[in-house]
Design goal:
alpha+beta; two-stranded antiparallel ribbon; 8 strands; about 25% strand
């Protein structure tokens, strides 16, 4: 009986030691999450209503930035020239901060763009110059601002019948 008790105690101690070793390994493997990347620079060019060039002090060539969370009209689409002009007015030759979230299939840096505390994407949607980005059932980060712009008939929504860029591209193809 004493032997059985001793075996049980030994087994229990081995389990505790194994669990402690596994916990130590898990803690050693855990690395802190990477810090979010922020770029600060001057906007040297606006390509269209949701894309710009950012010249940072660290880079010799400007970075192409796609504003995260918005979809502005294509340059050849009705409202495209107005969206480009609105973004020009907001950011051209100004110092902005980009909170990078990804890189897209075209090699562009994707991120939220801020002029001080002003979220440029929010402002574009709020003024009716862009839509909140959509993907399947996700209505995008600026849906409330888009609905307000529609209700107030701002920008793209003034005349009604504005076509989202994704639908425009399906019907007409890409701008040339």
């Amino acid at each position: 009986m004493i032997e059985r008790f001793a075996c049980a105690m030994l087994a229990a101690l081995l389990c505790v030691a194994a669990a402690a070793a596994d916990n130590k390994k898990a803690t050693a493997k855990h690395k802190p999450a990477p810090q979010p990347v922020e770029l600060t620079g001057t906007v040297s060019r606006v390509i269209d209503g949701d894309t710009l060039w950012l010249k940072t002090a660290a880079d010799t060539e400007p970075k192409v930035i796609r504003i995260d969370g918005i979809d502005a009209p294509e340059s050849c689409q009705p409202g495209g020239a107005d969206a480009t002009a609105a973004l020009n007015e907001l950011v051209l030759n100004r110092s902005v901060t980009v909170k990078v979230s990804a890189h897209d299939d075209y090699g562009r840096t994707v991120g939220k763009v801020f002029d001080g505390t002003v979220d440029v994407g929010d402002r574009m949607v709020r003024d009716g110059r862009a839509w909140s980005s959509r993907y399947k059932y996700d209505r995008g980060p600026y849906m409330a601002e888009e609905r307000m712009a529609q209700a107030l008939k701002r920008g793209l929504h003034a005349d009604g019948g504005a076509i989202e860029p994704r639908e425009f591209r399906k019907r007409n193809g890409a701008c040339k």
